[in-house]
Every structure is written in C-alpha cells, then in structure tokens.
Recover the amino acids of this structure.
C-alpha cells in the first residue's frame, strides 16, 4: 500500500475502501465456484455421467479386398470375393460355457465340435478368432444371429475372402495364404495378426502390393457396447492387381504334358522289368518344366508336379491334408528348388568354354579336328581320383568325332579330354576353374533372382568351395579336397554340381541370345483395381557375357543337329518339318543306390530353344527319376514346342534311351 500527500500537507489514505471491495468480490467468486462444483458433482452429476458414458467412441476395422492376380491376358487367377464368415470374440466368451457354445455352433454348421474347435485354435491366441474356412450362406448367418443369446461372442461378418479360379493350375507360382508367423511379423509391418497373408509364390513375393489398406467404421457406443450412432467411415483401399507374364493356356498345356511324361516314364520302367532282371527303381512321381522368353526373361509357363490347390489354404488347411501334401513334396516348386545334376545339358557350357578359350583335347587345335569317341578313357591324376571313365555307349565306341559331333552324340570322351587339357594347363592356378567361371557367368551356380521366394542357388564345385566345405562342413568333402577327377565330372554335368531347371533355362537363353543374361520374372506389371498401370516390370539385364557371334552361331547349329540326328532325334520325329526350327540338348544324370539300399533312377533332362535362328523361347524339362533324357524329357519338350509353334500336340512316344 502507498500513501499520498496533498499540496496542503494533509495525509489521506485512498486504497482502504478498494481493499474491502476486492475482498467482497473474491468471497463472492469463491461462493459461486463452490456452488457450481456442488451442482456438477451432486445435483447434475448423475445426468452428466450418463451423457459422458454415451460419448464413448469405438472403431471397427473394415478389411481391404486383396488385389487380383491375373495372367498376361487379364484372365483372373486369384481374386477377393464377398463372403460371410464367423468371428468369435473370446473376450465375450466365458471359458465355462465355451464347450457348449462351440457345440451349438457346430450343430448349426453341421460339423463336428472337434472341427470347430480345431479351427478356433488355428487362429492363434488373439482375442478375435476369424473362421474364413466356414464361409456361410445367408440362411446360416440368420440362424446364428437368431441364436446370439446362446452364442455369446459369436457373430457374423461380411469380409472379402480369397478365391482361386483355376483349381491347382499354376499353384506353385500363385502360392497360398495363411496367418502370419513370428518370422512374417518381423519381415512385414502387420498390425492385425488375424489377417491372412501370402505365404508362398506371388502371394508372398508381392504381398505389399496385394494387401491393400484397411478402412474403419467409427461409432459412438454406450458402456454395454450398444451402438448409439455412426460417426463416420474410412473406406478401405483395395490391393493392387499383379499382372503375370504367364499365360493360362500355355500353363495348362505344360502341366498336362508333365503328367503324360511321368506316365511315360513309369510305363518304360514296367517294360524294363518285364524284359529281364534289373534293379527295381522307384516310381516316377515328380517333374517340372519352364518356358521362358529368351530376350526378356519373361516366364510364359512354370509347372511343377505334384502340385496343390491354393484354395485349400483359405481359412486354414487341416493337419492330415497338410501332412499328405508335405509327404508328397507338393509344396516344392521344382523349377526353382529342384536341384539335380544337369548331366549332359551342361556340355553346352563346356562347349562354349572350349570355343571361347580355344581349349580342345590334346593334339587338337580346332573344333573341326576329330578324336576317337572310344568306349572308355583311362587317366591317372596321381591322386585319389578314379582312373577309368566310361562313355554312355560302353562297351561300344562311337567313332571319330569333333566338337560338333560330340555335342550331337553327347560324347563324354571328348568333353573329358577338354577337362584334361584344362587340368594340364591350369591345375592349381587361377585359371583352373575356367569352366566354372563360364558356367557362373551364364547363370549356373548362382541365384537367377527370379521374383519368387525360396529359390535354391544350386552348387557348382571348385577348389575354393571344397576348401570352404573342408573348413565349415567337413562331412561334405573328402580330406584331400578338390581333385582332378572332380573337374572331369563337372564338365559333363555330374559330381559336385546341382542346378535348377530355371538356372539351365537362363544359361541356354544367355548363350544363344549372344551373352545377355536376363533376370527371369513371373510378374509383368502392378495395376490399380481399375486397371491403371502403377508399375511396369521391364526386362532387367543382370550382366552381359562376351561370347563371340561365331560361337553363338556354331552352338545354335549343333543344338539343331541334336534333334535332327543326335540323341533327341527319335523324340522329335513327330515335329516333322518344324524340327529345323528347334535346337536343344538331352541329359541323363546318373542313377544311384542310397545308403538305405534304395535304387534311384536317373534324372531325365532336356533344354532347348526355338526358333533356333532367332531364339524366342527356351524350354527346360526335368523329370526326377525319369530315366533317360532322350527317352522321356525330350518327348515332353517336343510336345511343348509343338504347342509353342502352333501345330497339333501329339501324344508322347518314348525317344532313344541314351546317355545311360
């Protein structure tokens, strides 16, 4: 407080009355505030509490329709279809009545309670169990909703359900759906663990595009969960469409031909058993084929047998069915996971190495000079390598042959002599693995980078790999490490080498198009649900290999001679005049008896191209335990080429039993 003085010197206190007024005002304000608090808490509290309870906001997710998968012509292969499914909210299902509820639900669905229980348990530990495998019609949905009083936690929702239009066709390429695993949750930004995701094939590889974004309904509800009003809706964003490079008609034909090849192989085995005593081979059960564009890497067809139906996984597959498919190895896409010795199909790579590096048998200086393709070859490497190698014509010789004849007749002796020349010139030097270097360059022994999951990179043995194995996996290699005999095996596609059919297709395409190695691909474009192109997956060149035009022309000519007058001649007889347009190579990987005494028949191979003068398609066929490549795989390839070249496809007839 401050004092003031008038000019006449009299003192006057001016603020005392103001203090009183302020005190009065302050007291009044406190009284009003106290009254208001009393009114809110006691008088109007219950009414306002009811109003607050009625302002609880809740939201419900709206599932996004998964994007379509279509073939190159727009044929729908996988789509989302509207469906009514059952959901069980476990938080609203008391444990003491759970068994009764599931039994009532099973009765409505006309299923056993065990089936319903297993379906619920397959959904994991989340509060909400969605059961899309029990897709229901409107009448069943009405029965469930009518009995909600006795089915606590059970409701019906309209959700998009995955549908596959072509049965098992293209099953390995399309893949299938399933609930996310812990590994999937680490790999993908997934919020809802009850939403199925792609587990295999294109469904997995292009998950981020196919998945879409969920929407939501926002409601105002009361404490009992009753909806008072809808506040708003955010519509879901449908997933994108993935357009494939594959063609449905070509795929169907290739799959049909594979089944026929398996039947042919088994018929030949029965005939051999009837003709005389021999080791009883296992039945032929698996085969694969790839058709790829030589100059783009686009895959027109990729078939693997046995296969599966993706629809069986919608909502979850039962344990017995899954185990049966697993036992048959039906989930293995043999085109990218079936690793086998490529056998004599590898000789084309040795051929290119010989031509480009000017390496021929001892005493031979050009591809035109001949040597005797004798019945066997003896050589002592001075190590633990075998000393004697037999040609497939043993005990007969196959006459004098140059490099061109050797490829046509698949003469092991000639290519073994090339290996000996490499060993004599480059053993234990950086050039020792020159054949393997060419193989890796054109695509063998390394991933092709195809846009499908779980591709096997194969094995291509050399000294460095053997040293790594001896250090890290000693059980895989002998103590002596890499030997000369290993190189002898490699050059004819045997021994420490396994490759996938897709790798061999890439290798042949790159050798015959002049050295351009393309990334193989099954997807062509990503589009909106309205057909607008979001991304075009252009052909991608992985690398370029310097192969001379002379070598390319020579290889094309000699591969044509294989089907006209060589090991595939009989198999391609039905091609008629069109045989001039095709070139290729047979292969027969060695049979063996495993540690349990079970005899395993040879793996049958054929890899070829057409038209040979301007290659457009490469076809790789592999029949596991199929026998001879010339007898089984080559006829299957002939039928595929008939389809590609637009002529009638004739039934498979056994070709020549070669290269055994």
């Amino acid at each position: 407080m401050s004092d003031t003085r008038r000019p006449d010197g009299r003192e006057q206190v001016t603020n005392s009355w103001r203090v009183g007024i302020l005190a009065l005002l302050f007291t009044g304000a406190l009284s009003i505030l106290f009254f208001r608090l009393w009114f809110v808490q006691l008088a109007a509290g219950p009414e306002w509490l009811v109003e607050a309870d009625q302002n609880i906001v809740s939201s419900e997710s709206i599932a996004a329709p998964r994007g379509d998968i279509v073939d190159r012509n727009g044929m729908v292969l996988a789509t989302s279809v509207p469906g009514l499914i059952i959901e069980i909210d476990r938080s609203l299902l008391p444990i003491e009545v759970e068994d009764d509820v599931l039994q009532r639900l099973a009765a409505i669905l006309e299923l056993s309670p065990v089936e319903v229980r297993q379906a619920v348990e397959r959904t994991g530990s989340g509060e909400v169990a969605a059961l899309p495998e029990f897709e229901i019609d409107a009448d069943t949905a009405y029965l469930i909703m009518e009995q909600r009083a006795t089915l606590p936690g059970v409701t019906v929702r309209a959700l998009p359900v995955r549908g596959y239009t072509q049965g098992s066709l293209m099953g390995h390429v399309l893949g299938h759906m399933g609930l996310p695993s812990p590994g999937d949750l680490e790999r993908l930004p997934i919020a809802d663990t009850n939403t199925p995701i792609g587990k295999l094939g294109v469904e997995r590889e292009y998950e981020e595009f196919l998945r879409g974004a969920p929407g939501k309904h926002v409601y105002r509800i009361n404490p009992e969960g009753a909806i008072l009003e809808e506040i708003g809706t955010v519509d879901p964003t449908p997933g994108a469409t993935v357009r494939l490079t594959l063609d449905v008609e070509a795929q169907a034909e290739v799959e049909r031909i594979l089944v026929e090849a398996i039947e042919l192989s088994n018929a030949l085995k029965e005939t051999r058993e009837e003709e005389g005593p021999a080791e009883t081979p296992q039945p032929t059960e698996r085969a694969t084929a790839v058709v790829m564009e030589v100059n783009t890497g686009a895959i027109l067809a990729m078939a693997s047998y046995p296969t599966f139906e993706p629809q069986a996984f919608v909502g979850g597959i039962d344990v017995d069915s899954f185990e049966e498919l697993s036992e048959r190895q039906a989930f293995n896409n043999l085109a990218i996971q079936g690793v086998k010795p490529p056998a004599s199909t590898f000789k084309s790579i040795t051929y290119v190495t010989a031509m480009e590096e000017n390496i021929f048998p001892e005493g031979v200086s050009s591809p035109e000079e001949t040597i005797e393709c004798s019945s066997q070859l003896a050589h002592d490497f001075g190590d633990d390598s075998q000393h004697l190698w037999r040609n497939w014509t043993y005990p007969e010789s196959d006459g004098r042959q140059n490099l061109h004849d050797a490829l046509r007749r698949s003469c092991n002796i000639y290519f073994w002599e090339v290996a000996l020349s490499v060993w004599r010139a480059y053993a234990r030097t950086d050039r020792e693995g020159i054949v393997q270097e060419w193989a890796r360059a054109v695509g063998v022994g390394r991933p092709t980078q195809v846009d499908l999951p779980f591709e096997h990179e194969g094995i291509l043995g050399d000294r460095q790999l053997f040293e790594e194995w001896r250090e890290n996996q000693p059980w895989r290699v002998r103590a002596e490490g890499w030997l000369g005999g290993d190189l002898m095996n490699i050059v004819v596609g045997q021994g420490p080498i396994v490759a996938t059919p897709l790798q061999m297709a890439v290798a042949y395409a790159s050798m015959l198009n002049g050295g351009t190695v393309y990334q193989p691909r099954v997807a062509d474009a990503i589009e909106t649900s309205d057909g607008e192109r979001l991304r075009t997956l252009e052909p991608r060149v992985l690398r370029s290999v310097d192969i001379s035009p002379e070598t390319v022309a020579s290889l094309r000519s000699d591969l044509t001679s294989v089907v006209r007058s060589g090991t595939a001649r009989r198999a391609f007889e039905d091609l008629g005049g069109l045989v001039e347009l095709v070139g290729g190579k047979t292969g027969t990987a060695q049979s063996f008896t495993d540690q349990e005494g079970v005899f395993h028949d040879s793996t049958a191979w054929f890899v070829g191209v057409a038209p040979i003068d301007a290659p457009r398609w490469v076809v790789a066929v592999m029949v596991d335990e199929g026998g001879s490549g010339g007898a089984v795989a080559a006829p299957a390839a002939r039928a595929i080429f008939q389809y590609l070249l637009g002529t009638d496809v004739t039934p498979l007839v056994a070709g020549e039993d070669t290269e055994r």
